[in-house]
Prior knowledge:
Blueprint: E1 2-3, E2 13-14, E3 26-27, E4 36-37, E5 40-42, H1 47-56, E6 61-64, E7 80-83, E8 90-94, E9 99-103, H2 108-115, E10 120-122, H3 133-139, E11 155-161, E12 167-171, H4 176-182, E13 191-201, E14 204-211, H5 217-226, E15 231-238, E16 247-253, H6 272-283, H7 287-301, E17 305-307, H8 308-312, E18 327-337, H9 341-354, E19 358-367, E20 382-392, H10 395-414, E21 418-419, H11 429-435, H12 439-449, H13 458-463
Parallel strand pairs: 5-7, 6-7
Antiparallel strand pairs: 1-2, 3-4, 8-9, 9-13, 10-13, 11-12, 11-13, 14-16, 14-17, 15-16, 15-19, 18-20, 18-21, 19-20
Helix pairs in contact: 6-7, 9-10
Amino acid sequence: MLQASLGAGLAGALPACSGNGRGLPHASDVAQLDRTSVAGIISPTGSAGIAAALQRWQGAVCIAGGRYSMGGQTCEPDALQLDMTGMNQLLWLDAMRLRVRVQAGMRWRQLQTLLDPHGLSVKVMQSYANFTVGGSVSVNCHGRYVGNGALAATLHALQLVTADGQLLELSRTQQPQLFAAVIGGYGGLGVITEVELALDRNGAIERRVEHVALRDYPGWFREHVLGKPGVVLHNADLVPPGFDAPLAISWLRSDKPLTDARRLMPTQDSYAKQQNLIWAASELPGGDQLRDVYQTRRLLDEPRVVMRNLEASLDAATLEPRTRRMSSYLLQEYFVPVAAFVPFAHAMGRILREHGANALNISVRHAPRDDTSLMRWADEEVFCFVLYHKQRSWNAAEQNSRRWTRALIDAALDHGGRYYLPYRLHASVAQFRRAYSQADAFAAIKQQVDPGNRFRNLLWDRYLLQG
Length: 467
């Protein structure tokens, strides 16, 4: 390894050569199911440092943030990995125009700390605040924000460092095709270094929870969520073994007194109680009853009025296993047209039961059509099925997971839908091509801005190079 400073914004070691994998660092992700030998890991603090590193290092490059993608989207063998989490500065905040610009390695929770004193909130983000802003742009995330859908719609501008070290400003009016391709581009086109976002107002919200029949849910949602002013957040939980009894959870703007006066969830808190409940529900006989007593009934019976930022600052540690030595908790997601909600829900439940998948929960969200990103997952209005499941750490479990995942992907495709790309790379190349016909257009743009294919990861190695 050759130590190098390379001017402003670069910290760490820049490799002189890729080596053969021996004695080199390993990269992984939150799931900890795979380890990839990389040439080196550097932690830039500014765009200039990244540009300098790309000019000095001529090999492959991969990009990592919070590492919540679960299938090698942040890793590439013998590549230089850019750890973006040190690029976490606020660049400017315009409270009047409801806009903010930050470095891409900032985590949403850090941004919330800066916004809350101004009475502001993030407009769209994931349900948990641990992710980096740039990572969320790279996967084109969404959350529970009613009527808003994908993050893409809330993005005003991006800054991108390309393979030859150029610094580009992208927006709907400045290189709009590249702007659209970078959103949901999983680091395949360059390094997102800055992001300009739309914001919203903070305020008190009240939780409303009720059971809805599965067959009635699409109509109920349109009437009681989309058609009801003041609903800020919404999801519906489907729980095992049937996955056929939606528990609809809505958060509405409220002027009632707060039941929890905290402004934001604390960082570095202990979530042992939540982790133990998930372990018991997924491992012990009677786990479904435990879930019903300690989670569902509490949601139904406990009044809750909180600030929006408190609910938006949930910590992903609540979903973590107590240990990953034996098993890991994973996510998958499927998007289907509104008309396919009921038949796909039935098909999904049947496939999970037939294959003995240890599925803990399916969270249903809604998204309108995405008119911004190229590799969009919503060509039309969709319901989003977020599957949270537990998997043993050995190979046989991985192979079984691949089988039922491919069955779920086929079910989504057969119902006119798609699957989401940030998770395990179980889809076949044919399934990927069927789900994402935009891949050819993406590959053409990549050829223009990265002709040497320097920006690599396991996702694009599997599906783009072989497509």
